[in-house]
Amino acid sequence: MQEKFRNMISYYPQILQTSARVLQAAKVLEMPIIVTEQYPKALGKTCSELEISELPVFAKTNFNMLQPDVEEYFKSFKDKPMLKIHYVMTLNATQLLINKYAVVCILLEQMYN
Predict the structure, then answer these.
(1) Region label for 100, one of left (φ > 0), alpha (ψ between -120 and 50) or beta (otherwise)
(2) Cβ distance 105 to 83 under 8 Å?
(3) Could you name the domain of life of the organism this protein comes from (predicted)?
(4) Is the model's pTM score more than 0.85?
(5) Within a 10 A sphere around the Cβ of 40, how many other Cβ atoms?
(6) Hey, what CATH topology would domain 3-106 get?
(7) Count of CA atoms in the C-beta half-sphere (13 A) of 40
(8) How many whole angstroms separate alpha carbon 104 and alpha carbon 54?
(9) Does residue 24 surpass a pLDDT of 80?
(10) Which site among 4, 16, 67, 91 is 20 to 30 Å from 61 CA-CA?
C-alpha cells in the first residue's frame, strides 16, 4: 500500500483499512512482519495510515518479495508461520514454500458483494 497508488486503485481507503486490521492482528499474534516496498523512489513509501515505524522495510524492484536481503532476514523465522498479503501472493507463497519456510498463510477477504 504505497502512496503512489492512492488515487489509482479502486476502493483504496477500504483496502487500506483492511490492511491495517490484518497488520494489527499479526502484531497481536506476534507473527514476524516485514514490509516490502516496490521501487519506493518512484512509487513512494508505505502509506502513513499503516503503522510500520518499528518494522523492517525492504525496497525491491521486481514483483518477487524474496530478495536476497529479505531471505537472509527470514532465516531466523524458518519455523514460524508467515502471513503474506499482496497482489502477487501466489508467486511469493510458492517461492517461500520452495525455500522450505514452515507455513505460508494467505489471507483473502471478500470486501464487496
Answers:
(1) left
(2) yes
(3) Eukaryota
(4) no
(5) 18
(6) Rossmann fold (3.40.50)
(7) 11
(8) 23
(9) yes
(10) 16
Straight-line distance from the first to the last Cα atom of the chain, in angstroms, rounded to the nearest whole number: 22
84 touches 91 (CB < 8 A): no
At position 42, the amino acid (one-letter code) is A
Confidence tier at 12 by pLDDT (50, 70, 90) = confident
> 41-98, pLDDT tens digit by residue?
999 999 999 999 999 999 988 877 778 898 888 787 777 666 555 545 555 666 776 7
Nearest of 23, 28, 19, 36 to residue 109 by alpha carbon? 19
Instruction: Name the grid cell of 31.
Output: 507473527
Gap between the Cα atoms of 51 and 65, Å rounded = 20
**Three cell numbers written together for 8:** 489509482
**Share in percent of the chain as helix, strand, coil (round to 5):** 40, 15, 45
Cα–Cα distance between 20 and 12 in angstroms, integer? 12
CA distance 12 to 29: 26
